[in-house]
Amino acid sequence: MATDEVNPKAYPLADPELTKKILDLVQQSVNYKQIRKGANEATKTLNRGISEFIVMAADTEPLEILLHLPLLCEDKNDPYVFVRSKEALGRACGVSRPVIACSVTSNEGSQLKPQIQTLQNSIERLLI
Description:
Layout: H1 16-31, E1 35-37, H2 39-48, E2 51-57, H3 68-76, E3 80-83, H4 86-92, E4 101-105, H5 113-126
Parallel strand pairs: 2-3
Antiparallel strand pairs: 1-4, 2-4
Helix pairs in contact: 1-4, 1-5, 2-3
């Protein structure tokens, strides 16, 4: 599969501008300890109801290992979005490994609340 081709199942895919905003926020959530890395951890945050939104990497191989997350997000009414690169997602998560999924978690009184809200709205608009 060519690198610029994205699996059509990776929907909704953030455009470069939104991707930058998402990765910036992910990076900030790391500082505030409001991030869970990995598909399993993301699944746990959804089940516990502490997820603000889920970010997944569209270049995950095979993508199927992530595709339970959008279903779960829809059950829980949580926004979710794909970014193109697991490398970029890993960097945003502050690790040197690729990260295929992460969850930004809620934290009462967090300073990120307004940014998270804005981003949730942008992500929800993609899903319409």
